[in-house]
Amino acid sequence: MRKIYILLMVLAPTLVCAQENYWIKTDSLFKYVQPVASLQFWSTYTMGEKAQLTEDGPMEAMQDRLNFMVRRARIGFKGKPYKKLGYAVMIQYDNMGKDRFSGVRGSTNTGQLGILDVYATWRVSKSEMASVTVGYFHPQISRECVTGDLLVNSFDKAPTQGYIRQHITGKGYGRATGVNLGGVTNKHRVTIEYNVGIFNNNTTSEEFTETSGRYWSPLVVDRVTFTIGDTERKSYAINYDANNYYSKRKGITVGLNSSMQSKTDIFTSNYAGGFDVLCNYNNWNIDGEWMYMERHTEGQIYNMKAGHVRAGYNIIVKDKIFLEPCFMVSVFEGDPGAQFSGEDRMYDVGINWYLNKKSCKLSLHYMKQEGNGDNNYTDEETFKKGDFAGLAFVLLL
């Protein structure tokens, strides 16, 4: 009996260890929960804004104005509790202090909080070839739509992203709940990355906002990129980084995008497709995209087109002064009767001072806006956006 007890005492830890092999062990606590925050403060001066002040009245000129605002503010958590599993939860409280009659695009905010992103990514392969992302996040289409809002080198992201997002998801923020499969591979200085996702679209019903209506059809989105030269990033992710690599990257990336959705209560089918390009070579940073959008209704086909081109050049004046003059042109065109119609153009010229790469930046820019029709620039009845000059400070923590 004594020998049996001794044998059991020796085997017990071994049996426990054997059982422990069934479970996936977590990594360190630091990787498990990491707080993150980002802030973007704007000071803008608007000229030439017009708006309708009385019902059925004409548009009237607004007085030019200085406006201080929190253009974007985000706080949340991210982590990688397991070697192949990471997550992100982000809350936004954007546009606090925004003047209704400033030339800045977007709605005003008197203090409301909102969910920006909630998702988890699980790498299902040994390499970076296959990862599954589930949650509430950007469908992977259009580089400008999936690049972080505070990371572009223009004063703000191209306003054309708003048309693409609203056409595909029905929401300005462009997020949807769904599942995405993606991965990346690199061989002989050529990198290929792919994404394909299926999403709910609960904003396509005019009467019931939490459903697609009587008819149901999922949103299917796909994207593939080809990179020659230096890669954009070392590992797969659903968010794209800054388009300025601070003169360290020599490479070009071309992306092809498409989306489709069949019948809902407000259309019989909905499509989008296009391409985007990012080129970094020594001091030059050049990117752009062009998207074609098509919506079929009963007996009608409506088209919209949107795109931009943007370029910056890095200049090192002396120690700790890293400057980037930058300009951008964005263009939207839509058929009469489409979701958005007419033309919307923006011209942005300015300079960025990177105090600590993307983490801390000062920007001074001027935006000229023009257009016609019924779109985010004007509806020719109730509002018309003005030009504005802006000073911005970005801080990423």
Q: Any overview of this molecule?
A:
Strand 13 and strand 14 (300-313) form a beta hairpin. The chain has a 16-stranded antiparallel barrel. A three-stranded antiparallel sheet has the order 3-2-19, with no helix packed on it. It has helices at 2-20, 29-32, 143-146, 160-169, and strands at 34-47, 50-52, 59-61, 65-82, 85-92, 114-123, 131-137, 176-187, 190-199, 219-229, 250-261, 269-281, 284-297, 300-313, 315-318, 321-334, 342-356, 360-372, 383-384, 387-396. The N and C termini lie far apart (63 Å). The protein has four helices and 20 strands. With 397 residues, the protein is mainly beta. Helix content is 9%, strand content 52%. It is globular. It has a single domain, classed as Beta Barrel (Porin).
